[in-house]
Design a protein that fits this description.
Layout lengths: L1 H19 L13 H14 L2 H27 L8 H12 L4 H31 L8 H39 L22
Helix pairs in contact: 1-2, 3-4, 3-5, 5-6
Length: 200
C-alpha cells in the first residue's frame, strides 16, 4: 500500500510538472528511483505526442546500449561488474535523472552520433584491408565471393552514412540552441568519449 501511495504521489508530481511546462522538452526527468522513472515513462507513452514518444524511446535506448556496452568492456577487462538488467537500468537512470528532457534527447543523439562514427570507421578500415586482397589468376569463384563481400560491405557503409547524416541532422538544432555539447555528469564519464578516427 505504501508503495502504491508513493507511486501515485510521484505521478501527481509529474503531472503537475507537465502542466506547468510550456514545452514538453523543458520538463525534468524524474529518475531517482525505478518507480518514478517508470511512472514518467508511462505518462510519456500515454499522454505525449508521437514525436515526443519517439524521441524519448530512441534516447533511452541509445543510453541503455551505451551503459550495457561499457559494462561489457569492463567485464572483458576483468573488472567487477554487477550482473543483471537492474544494474543497467540504474546506470540509465543515473544519466537522465534531473535533466531536462531536451538534454536527455540531446545526450541520446550525441551517443548515437559517436557510436555510428566509431562503427563506420571500423567498417571502412575492414573494407580498405579487403580491397588489398587478391585472388589467384583464373579463380573465378574466389573472385565472385570477394566481389560479393565488397558489395555487401559497401551497402552497409552507405546505410551507416545515411543513418549518421540523419542523426547529425537531428542533433544540429539542439547543439545550436545550447551552443555546445552537453556538459558531462559523473555518470556520463567513460574512458573513451570520442569516436576513434580512421587512420589512413
Amino acid at each position: 500500500m505504501a508503495g502504491f501511495r508513493s507511486r501515485l504521489a510521484a505521478l501527481f508530481t509529474l503531472c503537475g510538472c507537465l502542466a506547468g511546462c510550456s514545452d514538453p522538452l523543458d520538463q525534468k526527468v524524474p529518475a531517482a528511483t525505478a518507480g518514478k522513472f517508470a511512472a514518467w515513462r508511462a505518462h510519456i507513452a500515454s499522454d505525449s505526442s508521437a514525436a515526443i514518444r519517439g524521441q524519448v524511446d530512441a534516447a533511452v535506448q541509445e543510453i541503455r546500449q551505451t551503459v550495457a556496452g561499457e559494462r561489457e568492456l569492463k567485464r572483458r577487462r576483468g573488472e567487477p561488474v554487477e550482473a543483471g538488467i537492474v544494474a543497467i537500468d540504474e546506470g540509465v537512470r543515473e544519466r537522465v535523472d534531473g535533466r531536462p528532457l531536451r538534454d536527455v534527447v540531446q545526450l541520446g543523439l550525441e551517443l548515437k552520433v559517436n557510436r555510428l562514427k566509431a562503427e563506420l570507421a571500423g567498417l571502412e578500415d575492414v573494407v580498405d584491408k579487403n580491397d588489398q586482397l587478391l585472388t589467384r589468376p583464373g579463380d573465378t569463384e574466389a573472385r565472385r565471393i570477394l566481389d560479393d563481400l565488397r558489395g555487401r560491405q559497401t551497402t552497409r557503409i552507405e546505410k551507416y552514412r545515411e543513418e549518421l547524416t540523419a542523426a547529425e541532422g537531428e542533433l544540429a538544432p539542439l547543439l545550436k540552441a545550447r551552443g555546445s555539447v552537453l556538459p558531462k555528469k559523473a555518470a556520463d564519464l567513460t574512458e573513451v568519449d570520442d569516436a576513434p578516427q580512421r587512420v589512413r
